[in-house]
Known about the structure:
434 Repressor (Amino-terminal Domain), mainly alpha, single chain, globular, 68% helix
Amino acid sequence: MTLSEYLTSNSKKPSHFADEVGVPASTITRILNGDRRPGLPLLLKILKATNGIVTPNDFAQELEAENDA
């Protein structure tokens, strides 16, 4: 599941999720817009905050889809 799908399905605003993982809201917004890729420490925080629903593999799959387009 993508981060965007997770936020939508859980009715979470990016700014609130950013608070949960301890990053600025702009960081989450940039990730959602495709302007930034999270590094390993942030990937692990996202994994934990989503209870394993959004995984590092989900970000890799997004990147792979972009490269195939």
